[in-house]
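Students often ask why inverse folding is considered easier than folding. One informal answer: many sequences map to the same fold, so there is more than one right answer. In these notes we will look at a single instance of the problem. The structure comes first.
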């Protein structure tokens, strides 16, 4: 049986949050998540502009601090 593949972009300045998110997504059954991670506002804008991800996970506190 084929599993669904979902491309995810995580925008977070905390590497611990990246590791937790990676492990959490890896444990999901029935779907394979391809996780990309950026840790800066400029990287996030560039990655989002490419429209290559199905889901964007944004650290709310990090994004508010950048605005």
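Output (designed amino acids):
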């Amino acid at each position: 049986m084929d599993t669904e593949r979902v491309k995810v972009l995580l925008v977070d300045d905390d590497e611990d949050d990246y590791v937790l998110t990676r492990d959490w997504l890896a444990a999901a059954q029935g779907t394979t998540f391809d996780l990309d991670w950026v840790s800066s506002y400029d990287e996030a804008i560039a990655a989002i502009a490419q429209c290559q991800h199905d889901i964007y996970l944004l650290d709310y506190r990090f994004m508010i601090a950048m605005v």
